[in-house]
Amino acid sequence: MKIIRQVGKTIFRLYIISILLLVPFIAASADIPFLSGRVTDNAEILSEGMRKTLTERLKSHEEITGNQIAILTIPTLGGAGIEEYATSVFEAWKLGRKGNDNGVLVIVVPNDRRMRIEVGYGLEGTLTDLVAGRIIRNIMAPRFKANDFDGGIEEAVKAITDTLEGKEAPDTGSSDTKTGKSSGFGPGFGIDEPDLPLIQRQCEEIAPKIDRTPEAETLAAQAIMTTDKFAKHAVVQRETFAVGGITKGSGMIAPNMGTMLAFIYTDADIGAKPLLQALKQATRRTFNRVVVDGDMSTNDIALCTATGEAGKVNSAEFSPALEECCRSLAKQIATDGEGATKLLEVTVKGAQKEEAAAKVARTIIESPLVKTAVYGEDPNWGRVIAAAGRAGVDFDPNAVSLWISDENMRYPLVKSGVIIADLKKAKEAMHGRKVIFILDLGAGNEEATAWGCDLTERYVEINGRYTT
Fold it and tell me: What share of the chain is helix, strand, coil (3-state, %, to 5)?
């Protein structure tokens, strides 16, 4: 089946490319706008006046920058995937421009309320960092909902061209790390759609009140709380720089960040690429290893801002500090899980790969049986081993060892596959606010830690009446 699907995808790409490559010959005298960086409105969603306006804007942009931008609207994908379609069209368009990578292709599918921006290699860093990720969310989506295709596409084109022409970042939710200017994009969560004009007015009201004090940080951490019981913030101080952050999260938390917001900041001077790499690694090892209830949300974000005021810092020194800060914030989220009475920490050692250890740790953390056993202070070693066994990681159960700890004392439950638990002592280790399981798979040298909490009646009370 895989071979058949791959052949099908290849045939589809070749079909699209062959059609588009024939366009210059079929329309040599018809001046097809698609191939000249103008507008092709196959879906017929734009007014005649807007087509002319966009065409003039794109012509002007090409004269200024040399970059070609094409807009293609199609009524429907007809069952094709947007990713596959966009890739095929962009490759054909690039061939029509003799392989020129300096171009942007905007594909709009109005019936599906979808938009795809294909960026040439030469522009990718500039455009995607500042615009592409926010155009759909902050400009296209609300306009399309109101069937204002003229306004939505016009604003999207302005956002793209302004950015590529070096003008101030448009109102798409991006920020310029050099100027410090922000368009006011706000992350969100909950059951309501965002009121963007209201958010803009609030940002304008708050801007003059921004301060740089410990009290201001606490107020900011409190402002993003929902069902959180306490404000969450952390700071890691190094000799030449610092990393700090605030976060929000209590429920609907699962491995892939979950319903959480994290705003991290540093005075280190570090490039955008190493900063992104460090943040991705820190997120993978911290926020993505927190489970409160196993549910994930569409509304989660982790942002890191570097002011550069402390001077140059190398990645080897910066990454551990960032990870330490994120770890503190992640553990606070787990501690404050909705209805939780105990923090649960699971460290898996002796794995062949770090990701394998993380997979086992996450599976144990999210197990309802393990979580309820922790709440009831029941040192049920069988539930921990059973959860590890269904994680999809190969290991020999006869080589497994398991301990329980309250951070001060550690008691063995299983040693090399043999049960040796002293249940009375093990139960004593569960009386406090933190319960730790250490699992050694005996299969390698890699390890990983995940964090969660117990599952209580209070969680059901909070979420059983969330909207009413």
Answer: 45, 20, 35
User: What pLDDT, on a 0 to 100 scale, did the predictor assign at position 235?
Assistant: 94
Please list the active-site residues. 259
88-123 burial code (b ≥16 CB/10 A, e <16): bbbbbbbebbeeeebbbbbbbbbeeeebbbbbbeeb
Domain ranges of the chain: 2-164, 206-335, 343-463
CA 231 to chain centre: 22
Q: Compute φ and ψ for 446, nearest 5 degrees.
A: -90, 155
- From 89, 88, 137, 148, select the one nearest 114 (Cα to Cα): 137
- Which H/E stretch holds residue 247? strand 242-248
**CATH superfamily label, 343-463:** ArgJ beta chain, C-terminal domain (3.10.20.340)
pTM of the model: 0.60
Residue 418 token pair: 């043999």
- Distances, alpha carbon 43 to alpha carbons 70, 86, 140, 284, 441, in Å: 15, 16, 16, 41, 57
Per-residue pLDDT tens digits for 171-223: 433 333 333 333 334 454 444 445 556 777 777 888 888 888 888 888 888 88
CB 164 within 8 A of CB 64: no
Is residue 172 a contact partner of residue 139, using CB atoms and an 8 Å limit? yes
Could you tell me the fold of the domain covering 2-164? Diaminopimelate Epimerase; Chain A, domain 1 (3.10.310)
Angle between the N-to-C axes of helices 354-366 and 381-389, in degrees from 0 to 180, rounded to the nearest 10: 130
Q: Quick: pLDDT tens for 373-400.
A: 999 999 999 999 999 999 999 999 999 9
Which has the higher per-residue pLDDT, 290 or 196?
A: 290
pLDDT for the residue 356: 96
CATH architecture of 206-335: 4-Layer Sandwich (3.60)
Average pLDDT, the chain: 79
The backbone torsions φ and ψ at residue 377, rounded to the nearest 5 degrees and listed phi first, read 55, 45
The residues near 380 (Cβ < 8 Å, ≥ 6 apart) are 369, 370, 373
User: Using an 8 Å Cβ cutoff, are 413 and 421 in contact?
Assistant: yes
What was the pLDDT predicted at 108?
78
- Cα separation, 248 vs 296, in Å, equals 15
Is the C-alpha dihedral spanning 40, 44, 46, 47 positive or negative? positive
Residue 278 region by backbone torsions, left for phi larger than 0, else alpha for psi between -120 and 50, else beta? alpha
For the beta carbon of residue 275, count every other beta carbon within 10 angstroms.
20
- What local confidence, expressed as pLDDT, does residue 69 receive? 83
